[in-house]
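Standup notes
- DV: blocked on the single-chain target, sequence here:
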Amino acid sequence: MPSRSSSDELARFFAGLTEHIFLQEFGLGDPVVVDYLSDLLSRFCSMNAIRKMNYPAGMDELQAILTVASELPDGMSRGAVYRHAGDLALYWTGLFPEGVRRLGTPGRRDALLDYTVEGKRSYLLASRLEDEAEPAQARVLRRLADDFELFALGLNKVRREWERLPGDMA
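- DV (later): unblocked, structure below
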C-alpha cells in the first residue's frame, strides 16, 4: 500500500490533471464535479477500492454490484452501492474502454451489459436515493448521470495525457 505522502501526491497529480483536461478541453470549471472525478481516479488506483464493498466475490463485476443493490432493503446503503456501480462503470468506460470490451465477452456476468447505460442509470438511482440525506452529493451524481459520456471522454483524455508524461512523472 502506498505511503500517505505518495497517496497525497497521487491525489494532487490526478486533481491537477483532471482540472486541466476538463477546463481546457471542455470548458468545464465545475470544481465539485472535477473534484469528484479526480477523487474517483485516486480511489480506484487500487483494485481494493474497486472491490471495496463487503459483499460476495465478484464485486468488481458490474452485474454483481447491481444485483446486490437491487436486493438490499430500501434505505440500506442502496445509494452507496448504486454510486459504486456508477463509479465502476465510469472508470472502465472512461479510462479503459478496451477493457470494457473484454468484460463483455461471452461467459462473463457483464457480457450483456452496456456500461454507459448502466453507469447513467446507477448514478441516477444513487442521486435519487441520496437526495434527502446528501443533496450536494445527489446533485453531483445527477450531473454524472446526465453527462456520463462527456465525463467518460474526459477521463479517457486524462489517461492519454498521463500516458504522454515521462515514466518518472506518471
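- Follow-up: The CA atoms of residues 22 and 28 lie 5 Å apart.
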